[in-house]
Amino acid sequence: MARRGIRRYCLNDSEFDEVCTMHCVFAFLVICDQNNLRPAYHRFHSIHTNKRGTAVNIEPPPLHTMLPLPLCIGTLFFAYRLFHGYVKGYRPLLDPHSLPGNAIPANWWHMGFMWPWIQRKHAHFNHTYDLTTIIPILAGNSMYIAASVGMARQIWGNEGKTHLVKPSDFTTEAVWGSSIALANGEDWKRHRRVVAPAISSNMLSRVVDESALVYQKMCKDLTPNGVVTDLHSLLLRFTLVMICRCGFGMSVDWKPSTANDEVAIFDRALSIASTTLIHRLIFPNWVWRLPVQRLREIDESWTTVLTLIASLAAGRQVQYSTLKELGDSEITDLFTKLVSSTEEASRYTLTPAEVTGDMMSLLFAGNETTSSVLMSTLVFLGLHPDQQQTAYEEILREVPSREEITLRNVSGLKYLLACMHEAHRLVPATINLPRDVPEDIVLRTMLPTEQDIIIRKGSRVMIDIMAVCHNPHDFPAPESFNPARWLSPDLKEDVIMFGAGPRSCVGRRFAQTEAVTFLAHFLRDWQVETVLHAGETQQTALDRILSGASMFGTAFGVGEVPVKITKRD
Ligand code: HEM
User: Fold this and answer.
1) According to the annotation, is 505 in a ligand binding site?
2) Where does the chain bind heme (predicted)?
3) Residue of minimum CA distance from atom 23 in ligand 1
4) Would residue 534 count as lying in a domain?
């Protein structure tokens, strides 16, 4: 029977938890191993009590003289947990999200950055808890971990009221300053009020048209009736060209040009910058001055991109004055829309530096994530021919001829979109999303018991997207590829992979329109088959592919997986 009550627990007090845990472990070891550890423990105890450093007899003392200290600590520990409250969780040595925690791969003693993915099927005590804690014993931040759709919704849904803050140690502020993805409070609202309406229907129609054009160019690099081994790279190029065209309004071509005009220089610099954000975030400034060719190249690319965006913004401002005479509907790229908000007469104004920050955020939030989801979708459809056939038939039904692919009939491709959501659920593009709590909030857990937990001001909460997306209470049979679950009339959950609430993905419609249009063209032309190794079944091939899933730049995904494509009649 579910029990409901109020629990108070504050991770600021976690030091107490850690110290007690260490003492209890030590005391337990001493009691178990009297001959070897008792003298060591006695010496440890004496050093801490005999401040004058008097010589200490290291003969093992009788056991009964040693028990009081561990017993006292143990009693204190359990009394603390009983009266103060306690949220079950993990006690790793290092914070898996810290720099050393990231660098050490996940193993039996270390959770590691990839822990949420590796443990996705059994995390949070076999999904029996929807809120747990991570309290590192040696170093790092303690945090609450939300592991169910309901818990994630409570955190995201109330962000407007609870004023949760995106932690600065997880953001790119040092690289390109303030932007929609990093700002908090009133500043964030101002950014959002400019960026959200910029992704208008006019803009999405442009996304549909440009997708068709870029896809046609990409086809020239595909080997008909052969195995494509670089599909992920091609998809990355596709999404980058799309952001350049629809985001920046620059007619970047499919093949990177060697010319010296502004567009080609921007394209080349952006291609390097778009894959090196992690380097830019991790390395200190002096690293970029080292005489290493590749480091210089990365540094120059970043400088070029940031200066070019600033100078392009000035040019667009002039262009905008002309466009205004023609009407707002003439502006179909994000950049010009954002530049127009630097006008003093605009309702919500951005500074030119903020426009640069927002454009960089849109680029990084939307490029690798979308290509990663496209790749997973094609791999899953390549392993599930029946679902691929259903999607193909829907494409033929909704879009009888290629020329008729418009924003309106792309939104009719419901099953295709469901396939994308399902592949995205199984391999989410983001691993976890953190927030800091500036004032006390209450979260209601449902598992293992219904309970209100007060999260104290100063705590950190992290949404474990991998656990949420693989939670069997939210997604029955979570490991199976079942696109139909997204079409069920009983479906209560919206697509959680794009976040939820006021800070959910502002580019979701952009990403969905771009990806579904691409898939409609691709699946219309090609039958996709994920290549199996000799002797593999679909399930073993899938296990192999998923075990190779990792971070590729800023997005999580399956990476390069060979697929066979056969031209349809
Ligand atoms: C499949 C592709 C995408 C995925 C999986 C994705 C996922 C997400 C998620 C989970 C968030 C919420 C982050 C948080 O709560 O901390 C987010 C926010 C955001 N996304 Fe996306 N995104 C995608 C595509 C895009 C695209 C194409 C754009 C731009 C055109 C974009 C721009 C943004 C921005 C600017 C934010 C920050 C919004 C805010 O803080 O108000 N995303 N995205």
Assistant:
1) yes
2) 505
3) 366
4) yes
* 91: DSSP letter: -
Structural domains in the chain (count): 2
**Distance from the alpha carbon of residue 511 to the mean position of ligand 1, in angstroms:** 9
Q: DSSP string covering 232-279, please?
A: HHHHHHHHHHHIIIIIS-----SSPP---SHHHHHHHHHHHHTT-HHH
Whole-angstrom Cα distance, residue 135 to residue 156? 23
Q: Which domain holds residue 75?
A: 13-85
* pTM, full prediction: 0.87
**How does residue 57 score in pLDDT terms, banded at 50, 70 and 90?**
very low
The answer to whether position 18 is within a domain reads: yes
Residue 106 counted as domain residue = no
- Does 38 score more than 60 pLDDT? no
Interval between CA 508 and ligand 1 midpoint (Å): 7
296: tokens are 């210089």
In a domain, 526, yes or no: yes
* Ligand 1 atom having least distance to the Cα of 358: 35
Distance from the alpha carbon of residue 505 to the mean position of ligand 1, in angstroms: 4
Angstrom distance (rounded) from CA 90 to CA 257:
51
**Which pLDDT score is estimated for 172?**
67
User: CB–CB of 562/531 below 8 Å?
Assistant: yes
What pLDDT is recorded for position 63? 62
DSSP 25-77: HHHHHHHH-HHHHHHHHHHHHHHHH-TT------SPPPHHHHSHHHHHHHHHH
Asked which of 59, 85, 111 is the last residue of a domain, the reply is 85
Amino acid in the structure at residue 275? T
* Mean pLDDT across 525-541: 96
pLDDT given for residue 52 in this prediction: 42
User: Is there an atom of ligand 1 within 6 Å of 463 CB?
Assistant: no
Among 85, 106, 133, the domain-final residue is: 85
pLDDT(494) > 80: no
pLDDT digits (tens, 9 = 90+) for 370-379: 999 999 999 9
Structure tokens belonging to residue 110: 């270390």
